[in-house]
UniProtKB/TrEMBL annotation:
Protein name: Cell division ATP-binding protein FtsE
Subcellular location as annotated: Cell membrane
Listed GO biological process terms: cell division
Organism: Romboutsia faecis
Family named by the database record: Belongs to the ABC transporter superfamily.
PANTHER family in alphabetical order: CELL DIVISION ATP-BINDING PROTEIN FTSE, IMPORT ATP-BINDING PROTEIN
Function per UniProt: Part of the ABC transporter FtsEX involved in cellular division.
Self-association state and partner proteins as the record states: Homodimer. Forms a membrane-associated complex with FtsX.
Protein keywords: ATP-binding, Cell cycle, Cell division, Cell membrane, Membrane, Nucleotide-binding
Gene Ontology molecular functions: ATP binding
Location of the ABC transporter domain: 2-228
Mode of membrane association: Peripheral membrane protein
UniProt-listed NCBIfam families: FtsE
Keyword Nucleotide-binding attributed: yes
Amino acid sequence: MIKFTCVDKMYPDGNKTLKNINLKIDKGEFVFLVGRSGAGKSTLLKLITREERASKGSVSVLGNDITNIKVNKLHTYRRNIGIVFQDFKLLKDKTVYENVELAMRVIGENPKDIKTRVMEVLQKVGIYHKCNKYPDELSGGECQRVGIARAIVNKPSVIIADECTGNLDIENSRKIVDLLESINEEGVTIVMATHDMEILKQYNKRIVAIDAGKIIKDTKRDQYEVIV
Ligand SMILES: Nc1ncnc2c1ncn2[C@@H]1O[C@H](COP(=O)(O)OP(=O)(O)OP(=O)(O)O)[C@@H](O)[C@H]1O
């Protein structure tokens, strides 16, 4: 499903942010990516969403090598990936419904299907009753529910969540991870970067730890295909 083979990532300033990453994540897994600030978590996630490109090695997702994917194919590739952000990235001048609807509109979905699907996901994430509210009228936890609704509305195979509980208290963080867990139970692969030790302790998931650009721990290391 997601496979990193001997991946290095160097930014233009010459610093090697990721070093020889070998990582395999199977379909339907829920993985916590942990590490101190600057360790390289976001960079690793950006290689999956293909916002960044590996400097060396290859990244393959859903059976396709995306390392050198053509720019005109990126749009189609990204339909398989839902992204949840720490700061929600909701459009302030759009309602909850409109924020989620837009994600379907931009890929040209049939307007008839849009309404049914948006209502369905708003119900799933528990924010249906606030569908006409604007982001400024919602709590952080509610905003993140909308962020998750937007991420899942196009039925992606993978959800990438970068510190998606970073702006929430522990109670709301738990509710958000519970929601991601229920999405994972439907077969969606989840990769979530987090600093939150409470969350790590409470949820028994695979943990991949990065330090200074290297994987230093993986609770499922035995199942790796390490290619050196
Ligand atoms: N666009 C960029 N250009 C140059 N260096 C970058 C860029 N993005 C990240 N870096 C550097 O790469 C390293 C890893 O950054 P990254 O954001 O991946 O870490 P992180 O583990 O997600 O950190 P945090 O938990 O603080 O978000 C840092 O030293 C950072 O300064």
